[in-house]
Give the backbone structure.
Amino acid sequence: MEMIPALGSALAGLLQEAAHGAAGAAGQGAAHGAGQAAGDHGGSFTPILPGLILLIPLIGAAVNGLGAFLWRDRRLVPSWVGPLAVGGAFAVVLANFLRMLETGAAGPAVVTLWSWLSVGGLEVGVDLLFDRLSMVMMLVVTGVSTVIHVYSAGYMRDDPGISRFFAYLNLFVFFMLVLVMGGNFPVTFVGWEGVGLCSYLLIGFWYENAEYSSAGKKAFIVNRIGDFGFLVAMFLLFAMFGTLDYVPIIESAADELAYGGITVTAVTLLLLLACTGKSAQIPLYTWLPDAMAGPTPVSALIHAATMVTAGVYLVARSGVLFAMAPMSQAAVATVGAGTALFAATIALKQYDIKKVLAYSTISQLGYMFLAVGVGAYTAGIFHLTTHAFFKALLFLGAGAVIHSVEHAFHEQGHHGDPNDMRSHGGLMSVMPVTGTTMWAATLAIAGVFPFAGFFSKDEIIWYAGSYGYPILWGVSLVAAVLTAAYMARLMFMTFHGENRTDEAAGQGASSALHEAPAVMTVPLVILAVLSVVGGWIQIPEALPLPHVSWLHDWLHPAVEPALAVAEEHGVEAAHAAPLGGGEAVWAGVSLVLAVGGIVAGAAWVRSKEILVPERAADDRGLARVLNRKWYVDELYERVFVGPLLALSRACWRVVDDRIIDGAVNGLGYAGRALGWVGSRLQSGRIGTYVLVFTLGVLAVLGGLVL
Amino acid sequence: MEIDFVSKFDYLLILLPEVVLSAAALVLLLGDVFQRGQESSQSADWVGLTAAGSVLAAAAANGFLLTLEVTSGAPMIAADAFRVTANFIFLGATFFGLLFSFDWLEREGLDKGEFYVLVLLATVGMMVLGAARDLIVVFLSLELMSIAVYVLTAFQRSDPRSSEAGLKYFLIGAFASAFLLFGIAFLYGATGTTNLARVVPRVAEAAADGNVLLYLGTGLLLVGFGFKISAVPFHMWTPDAYEGAPTPVTGYMAAGVKAAAFAALLRVLTVELMPAADAWQVALWWVAVLTMVLPNLVALAQDDVKRMLAYSSVAHAGYLLVGVVSANALGRSAALFYLAVYTLMTLGSFAVVYHVAGKGDRRRHLSDFAGLGWRRPLLGVAMVIFLLSLAGFPPTGGFVGKLYLLRAAVDAGQVGLAVTLVLTSLVAYYYYLRVVWKMYFEEAPEEAPSPGRPGPSFRFSAAVCAAGILLLGLLPGTGIDAADRAGRSLTDRPTVESPAAGATTAGLDGPGATPASPSSESDGPSD
């Protein structure tokens, strides 16, 4: 984090100049948001060029989209326009961040771009919300996106669809920003749907492959279930508050709603349903592993760093509502902890490197849900941020590995799966940069001191215990061990031991393995640095280290209303874990667990010979159950999809064909019959027309005069 | 700039757009004759381009009208925001109608100067009609517009359908004009003036007296306008005329002529004849309901897309009538907003139909649209936008327009109309979406000829129309503001009457001979 201000201060100054210039030229144009800014934390905040943050990626998407038609074969334009568009948005966000930092203003500042809907009592503007929370999200989204876009320029270099790819990717960033900047539920929902659409388009990017495009559809359909929750929650909120803007809802929730009442519980549970879809939590997580069919930078950006964290963001954003509904909070925390453990077990026995990372992502998202569920919003956002760094890095590193192995397979004319770790091994010697940076990320995710994940994950585990959820606390500790183990397994299978590429693809294949080009490794190094230092923005007081409370202080104004509600109703953090012992003790314990997990994982990989996929026997016993992901997909197939298909077949045959079609066709026939009578009257004879005309005249005159 | 009609030059100023367009029409008429040499040859490109250019010039002149301020006199021509906004709609219809028709004229070998001249003159008629504040001017401009359009309808002389359509349109049009003229005469009898600016108090008086002449006049006026806007039951000519007319003309008729008639109707009925509203609202309520219900049902049975769109355009007259019957400021603005959207989507959809139909307008059946979305992706997208907007699907302008009309109706307490509007719109989804379905979900037969790539002017105007529809749907603010300002300008203007300017402004103001005319009031030197 330290390097960013240094890098951006010059740019920020420039932009501020531009903003003032524009304000001077356009009169009140730029000062629009100031009037509506409200908040008691450090006064008001005037965003710098707020519309531009959205506009630049949108223009990028438009240019690249046009490019997909106009300059099909030219790779240069999209590989510059794509990253620059997102980088530009990042620069503007940075300028805003620096101003907020400088002035100490907290917002919330609402900028209304235009009035969108005004129907009945419902007034919805296209509002952008600038507060401490959305600012962190904007920084993470645009920052990580910029790095990944640069990487993509290298990764997709040889793909004929690169223009289309960057068009989707830019569009995704646009919608993601709409999601986090939305000043009311409908605008957030637009972003919510938009990122879903882009995710669907990008998962099915290689749509020639039927399996890939059906993975896209799966993601789309599972997310619709969640969206249903979002929509109904919105209706309920409107019924309760008469508005859908965040600011008034947050301000008045504590007075308007009954604590633990049925409506607020219903609303928050519905929101939770929406979040489990978008953030791949139990029970709606099954789409995310399949979503790995998309290009790897997509997995890094959408399915690890940004889109899937939208659920966490939404819970944090509506923290006041959740604080009013302790039952829902418990549900969120339970879903989170359960998912963290469950997905971690599956990750233990996956062979596809991206599948391991996918389940790891689900598991880590579980941690974030656990955090926001117990009411530790800052801890959730903290882990969201560090996770964006190290998980993006892991995916990008995996992409570099896949790129390299695929190349080797291609040279040999081998059609195996380049994602399968059983065909990797010993890659450290050929890909030192990728391997080293991925180790940094691995140590971070495993929670080894002083890497980023140590601080963020430890905080979550600590709060789960101290807010009085002993079982979830235990679960999260177990999941932490498993995390270290499966990550060590991934690293040792991929980068250490004997190389098995020759064995898989034939002699000489390994000579084609290569380190990724600089355009791909530089992003890895940047993310690696962030994975190391990213955790230092928040160091608990209890540890024998310099106490840093930057993130807590920064986010405090944004999460304060929710904390106030919790405090008012006697929810308080204890100062000891369920088994006794303070924060420092348990930080030490979890560090030991993490290292232990890594050692165990390494020993596990070393303990037996790894056979390439062609010769490997099927797993047996528990390993098989884990490899087949607890048979959940099969269960869903049996319990939901199968009966649903049968039901829809029945509906189609009986209800639709006979009853509804009968009625509709009947109505249709009736309508058409009437129409037929009408058109018979339309004989084409002028005499008839004049007759009808005259009758009409008589009717009108009769009506008027009599 | 202030206008007080002391200088004769002021008349030119206040009629500037009309003057520009009329002059262009005359120049083109002569220029084309000299350029072509003989009747059978085609016009040069510059003729069409000049016509389109003159429309732009007229639009610029129209914008200039906003700077005028009438300080005295109650002229026969209004210079309010309503006129300017309506003019922009007419000029837009003409501009895009012309651009759309270039392809067609060339294809059918009909690229003759007369076409452009007639279109320009019809547009002059529309503009005057939208601005008319005297019933005589209403009649004159209506005839100017109608006669030009009669000829345009029959423009494809080689096609008997076109001639038949022109003849039918003309005969029934003449029949309707007679009613309109009768109505004007009765109104004059009831109020003693044809000038709308001073008719309001006299209408109130006549209505209070229960003057039969007033009701007869209003009723006959309704009939005359009902014909022009093709309201049921005065609509019977519409499907035949629309179907037989050359398709670009159909689009122009459906968009421009209807818009002009509605503009006049809004001004005459909902402002000047407002004191008699009790009477005409009931009659028009029924007309509106019938006009929404009947054509939508008949359109269900049409397999000819052009005819289907013809019925749909009748149905849209019904939706627009909702705004008229509501008779409040909101209704006027809503109708104006809807007219703008309606112009874009109607022109666009008819243009796509003629493009797909190919030479001789033969391939207009629903099945001819099969697979269009895949064969001509951009044309397909444009058509989908037009159709969804006609159906009133968000986020198109058609949706916002309908919403606006609904609000006006609900505000005016016309809940029945609002419900009818919603229900009939739902019915209409079926026949619009049927075309979309054909375009995307059915394969074109192997042997079916693929429609070619449209010409540049066609592509340009299709893109602009589609973009305009989306813009009015996504960012309706500006459009609504403009419509709102225009709607309110009808009633907001000062009602000062200056005897000094009477000579030039009083129109056919009677000498107080009619019984209802208050003879105490002295207007004009004719007294």
